[in-house]
Queue: 3 jobs
Job 1
Amino acid sequence: MKLLSLFSWLLAAGIGFPTVQAAEATRPNIVIIFADDLGYGDLGCYGHPTIRTPNLDRMAAEGMRFTEFYSAAEVCTPSRAALLTGRYPIRSGMCHDQFRVLRPRSLGQLPDNEITLAEALKAKGYATGCIGKWHLGVPQFNPGGHPRKHGFDFYFGLPHSNDMDPTPVAPKGAGKLAEQRAEWWNAPLYRDDQIIERPADQTTLTRRYTDEAVKFIQRNKTKPFFLYFPHTFPHTPLFASKDFAGKSPRGIYGDVVEELDASVGKVLDTLRAEKLAENTLVFFTSDNGPWLIMNQQGGSAGLLREGKGSTWEGGMRVPGIAWWPGKIKPTVQRTLACTMDLFTTSLKLAGADVPGDRPIDGLDIRPLLFGTGPVSREAYFYYRGTRLMAARSGDFKAHYMTQAAYGQPKHEEHTPPLLFNLRVDPSETHNVATNHSAVLGQIAQVVEKHKAALQPAPSQLVEVQPVAEKK
C-alpha cells in the first residue's frame, strides 16, 4: 500500500511524467495516405509527363520510392481490408466473385474478430484517426461497420465510394461523363457517428479532409498517433476545388491529382512545423490501379498492363512512397513490398506484438526502409475476389487465370500457366513459360502450400438491406 501511495503521489506531482513522455517519444507517429484508383503512372516521380506533383516528387526524392509496390486486391473494399488487417481479404471474407465491393445498402462489414492496425496501435497508447473514404461497412445500415467500432477514435469522411449514391436525376453512366454535376450525387459525409452533410460538397472534400488531417496532427502532437488518410479521389466522379479546377494540362483528372499532391504537401509541412517529421513515418500509396474504362476521367498504369479490376500488373502494382527524415535515406527501392506489410511494419515500429493467433501475410519491411538488409518473401498472391489468379515468386509471375478488368464476362484458364519475368518484362508482353518449366513447378509448389493452409471466411459482401416497397 505504501508503494502504491508513493507511486500515486509521484504521478500526482508530475514526477513520473518525463519517463512516460520519453517512452512515448520513442514510438513513431504513423501516417498512411491512401489514394483511390490512382495509377502507377499518374505521378511525376513515376513518369507522368503532364500531371504536376511537386510535393509527392519531393517526398520521393527525400525518402524511398518503390518500383514494385502492390495493393493486395484490384478493387477497393478488399484492398482496404488487407491494409488494415495485414491479411489477404479472402481470410476476412471481404471479397466476393460477383459483388466485388460493399454496396451502398450492404449489411456486411470488416468482421469484429479481425484485428485492425488502429486497434493494435490504440492498445499501445496511440491516438487514432480515419479521414476519408472508409468502404469497410455502411454505418447507416450496420452501426458495427463504423470506423469507430474498429479502433478509430475519430472519423471524418464518406462511408463508401463517391459514385454509390446517384440521385434520380443522374443519367445512366454518369460517372463516365466528362462534365460532372453536383446534383447527380448524394454521398453522405460523416463526422464521427453523425451525418453532417448530404449530399457532400465533393468540390471541397480534398480540402476539408486535409484541414481535418492537419487539426488531428496538431491535436495529438504530444502523444503518438496513427492517421489513416484514405482519399476519396481520383475515383470518379471527379471534382476539384476552385483553386485547382481547370488548372492542369491533363484536364479534370490532373486537377484532382494535383490537389491531392497539395494535400500531401500540407500534411508534410504540418509535421515539419510541429517538429514531428523526424519521429513520423509517412507512407503514400493507392488502393488499386487506374479505372481505365473511365477514359479521360481515369488514370494511367504507365508501362503496366491493364488496370483496376484486373490481376495483370496494372491492376495491383501502385505507387509507393515512404518518408521519414533522418531515418529513411533517399532511395529507389526495387524489392517487392505491399500494403499488407504496412500492418506488420507499423506494429513493429510501435513496439506492439503482431497477432500470433492467425495468419498474417504482411512482412516486416523495416530492413528495406532503413537499409539494414533484405526481406525474404516466398511468394506474392494475386486474388480477384476469391480466385487465386496468379502468383509471383522472385522475378517470375505465373498466371493461372486471366480476366480483363471490365468487358470480359468470364475468366480464362491457362494450362500451362502464362509466365512472365517481371524484372525484364513488367508490361507482361512476352510469355516465357516454354523456357522455364522448372520455375513454373517451383511456383506451383508454393501455391499448393498456400492453398492447403488457407481457411477462407464467409463473404461479407452479399447481404444488403432491401429497399422498402412503396405503398
Job 2
Amino acid sequence: MHITVLQGKIHHAVVTAKDLGYHGSLTVDEDLLEQAGLLVGQQIQVYNGNNGARFETYLIRGRRGSGEMQVNGPASRLVEVGDTIVVAAFAQMTPDEAKRFTPKVVICDRDNRVLETIVY
C-alpha cells in the first residue's frame, strides 16, 4: 500500500505575472524549486489565499534569482498579479517510507525570497 504525503511546499509566494496564452503550468524561480525540493514537470496543487481558488498544474523552471511566480494558461484566470499563493507537491510512499521522509516548506517574503525553511 502507498499513501500520499506532502513532499514540499512554497508558502506565501506572490504571483508576479500571468499569461493566459501560454500552454499551461506554473513558472517558478529555480532557487525556490530547489529550496523546496520540487522538480520541473512535477504535478502540483496551487491554493490562492486571496480568493480561495485551487487548481492543479505542473512546474516549469523560472530564471534563477528572479523571484518569478507566473501562472500560465487557463489557470491564470484564477489569480491576479499580487495574489498570495501556496504551491504544494505530494508524493506516493509506503507508510514506512513516509515515517522516515521529511518534507520541506519554504516561507516567502513579498519578493519571493525565502524567509524561513521549515522541515517537519
Job 3
Amino acid sequence: MNKKHLEITVKGKVHGVFYRVSTKAVADQLGVRGYVKNGDNGEVLIVAEGDNASLDMFLDWCREGPEHADVISVESNEGELKNYRNFEVVKKNFLW
C-alpha cells in the first residue's frame, strides 16, 4: 500500500475550539500517523502520513474541523515519508 506524507496548514478560527484534540481523534480513527500543533500565527500545523484514501478523508475533515471551528483555508504539500508510529498532539512548538 502506498503511503504518503503531507504537511498541512489550516487557517481560520482554529485555536481554542478543540481542533488539535479532534484532529487526533479523527487521525486515530482513520489510521493516519504524525502530529498536530498550533502555529505561531493562529494556524494549526499538521504532519500526516497514511494511504491515499485515509489522507483524502482526513483532509476533508480538516476543511470542516470540529463544531466551533471556522476553517478559512487548508493547504497541503507532500513531503518525505518519516514513518511515524502514532499521531500526537504536540504542546510546545518546534520546527517541522
